[in-house]
Amino acid sequence: MGFKHISLFLLLSLLILTILSGAGQALASGKKQHVSQRNKTALAAAGGGGKEMLKGRKQTSGCNLFQGRWVFDASYPFYDSSTCPFIDGEFDCLKFGRPDKQFLKYSWLPDSCTVPRFDGEAFLKKWRGKRVMFVGDSLSLNMWESLGCMIHSSVPNTKTTFLKRTPLSSLTFQEYDVTLFLYRTPYLVDISKESVGRVLNLGAIEDGADAWKNMDLLVFNSWHWWTHTGVQSQGWDFIRDGSSLTRDMDRLDAFNKGLTTWGQWIDQNVNVSQTRVFFQGISPTHYMGREWNEPRKTCNGQMQPLTGSTYPGGSLPAASIVSRVLSSMRTPVYLLDITTLSQLRKDAHPSTYGGDGGTDCSHWCLPGLPDTWNQLLYAALSI
């Protein structure tokens, strides 16, 4: 009996060891399959997909699309200005004689993630039947025309309908039923006619704002006009702040109040289950060379970006206001934080090649920097 008991015990032990060994192999096999699949995903992204890697890095390492540097890239630009029918003359620097072309050959390289190259056809397929609207000033125009050209270069034979009006313009890619709108309103808040004249009302958004509703993607922008002075340049005679009517006030304070009103409008009127909201960020100017340690210079004659990832002139106070207002809102708004990367591009303005005889260090040549803004918008929409 003792021998039988020992034999039975040995058999049971062997059986248990066999089961445990099989389970271990199964677990190891499953782990190897997981690693293999992860490697496949990374390789696919490196091969040009980009989306999976971008999403993974965003989740695992806090990808910041807007921290990085400019690098020479022979594959740029995305399009030829002479073949894009949507560019305003003020942005078409090559048409008006800009002799250097190196400014077209830079791409933005973030420190912590890979930006997928813009694919206009993929954008149209993803947004088929959708409505995209840029809302703001002439820098919104800059970005809107850029996106139109970038998409057109991917599908040059697709029929389009292009309507340029004030305040609402549109560009429709008919085959895909995708429309890019532009709504011009430089302050976002209203300028109304009162008995005293034109009044910038910091607490009101009523004029035309219904046009912003029911969009699938909204990209807002404002600041450029808040710095204008003189009744002709600024477009208003008085500022209304609540019950107070004044000739002028601190422009940063006014911007803060106006943008807060905009934020309240967004919170009350945007359905986040339907609409994604972006804020374009503050676009810098390059009129004062002391900001980049060339005190007697402007953007005129600049032929290359600043190196590195920081701007000698520091951050812009208006950018801090944007961040503060967005953080106070209930509605999630993605900040397309283009300020620093644009500050580094002192070379990318029309300067004297905007066709009007002046020096423009506020807007940007097309092709050019706004194409990068749109590429980063494309990347952010993929995250």
Automatic annotation (TrEMBL):
<feature type="domain" description="Trichome birefringence-like N-terminal">
    <location>
        <begin position="62"/>
        <end position="113"/>
    </location>
</feature>
<dbReference type="InterPro" id="IPR025846">
    <property type="entry name" value="TBL_N"/>
</dbReference>
<keyword id="KW-0812">Transmembrane</keyword>
<dbReference type="InterPro" id="IPR029962">
    <property type="entry name" value="TBL"/>
</dbReference>
<feature type="signal peptide">
    <location>
        <begin position="1"/>
        <end position="28"/>
    </location>
</feature>
<dbReference type="GO" id="GO:0005794">
    <property type="term" value="C:Golgi apparatus"/>
</dbReference>
<feature type="domain" description="Trichome birefringence-like C-terminal">
    <location>
        <begin position="115"/>
        <end position="379"/>
    </location>
</feature>
<keyword id="KW-0732">Signal</keyword>
<protein>
    <recommendedName>
        <fullName>Trichome birefringence-like N-terminal domain-containing protein</fullName>
    </recommendedName>
</protein>
<comment type="similarity">
    <text>Belongs to the PC-esterase family. TBL subfamily.</text>
</comment>
<dbReference type="GO" id="GO:0016020">
    <property type="term" value="C:membrane"/>
</dbReference>
<keyword id="KW-0735">Signal-anchor</keyword>
<dbReference type="Pfam" id="PF13839">
    <property type="entry name" value="PC-Esterase"/>
</dbReference>
<dbReference type="GO" id="GO:0016413">
    <property type="term" value="F:O-acetyltransferase activity"/>
</dbReference>
<dbReference type="Pfam" id="PF14416">
    <property type="entry name" value="PMR5N"/>
</dbReference>
<keyword id="KW-1133">Transmembrane helix</keyword>
<dbReference type="InterPro" id="IPR026057">
    <property type="entry name" value="TBL_C"/>
</dbReference>
<keyword id="KW-0472">Membrane</keyword>
